[in-house]
Design goal:
The protein is mostly helical and about 110 residues long. Helix 2 runs antiparallel to helix 4 and helix 3 packs antiparallel against helix 4. It has four helices and no strands. Helix content is about 70%, strand content about 0%. The termini are far apart.
Length: about 110
């Protein structure tokens, strides 16, 4: 029996990655991270990994989702984890920092 619908998976992957990456990027920028750091943080947070597989398994066992959607969720967790790991490894291999270092606040001068 065939449990992976490739076209739906591609659209679901694109939608899931786009929404999570954009929201994580926006949150990082709002928190003061520069564009490069925000992009790397967004890619890292896009990985669903083990928790995604566990959640899919619990939903499947509870009968909330069918086998086809369970397969898509597990594939989503695997693909996003591989993509994030590959991106971050390439960033480090090229000698770039993943996040920017915060600039210390200057200490106020004291009148003696």
């Amino acid at each position: 029996m065939h449990h992976l619908e490739p076209l739906f998976f591609v659209f679901f992957l694109a939608f899931a990655c786009l929404t999570k990456t954009v929201s994580a990027y926006a949150g990082a920028r709002f928190a003061g991270e520069d564009k490069t750091g925000a992009r790397n943080l967004a890619v890292a947070l896009n990985a669903r990994g083990g928790p995604g597989i566990v959640l899919a398994s619990v939903a499947f066992d509870a009968g909330i989702i069918d086998l086809a959607f369970y397969t898509i969720l597990v594939m989503l967790a695997l693909v996003t984890s591989v993509l994030a790991g590959s991106w971050l490894e390439a960033t480090l291999r090229h000698g770039h920092a993943l996040l920017t270092e915060p600039h210390p606040e200057p200490e106020p001068s004291r009148a003696d």
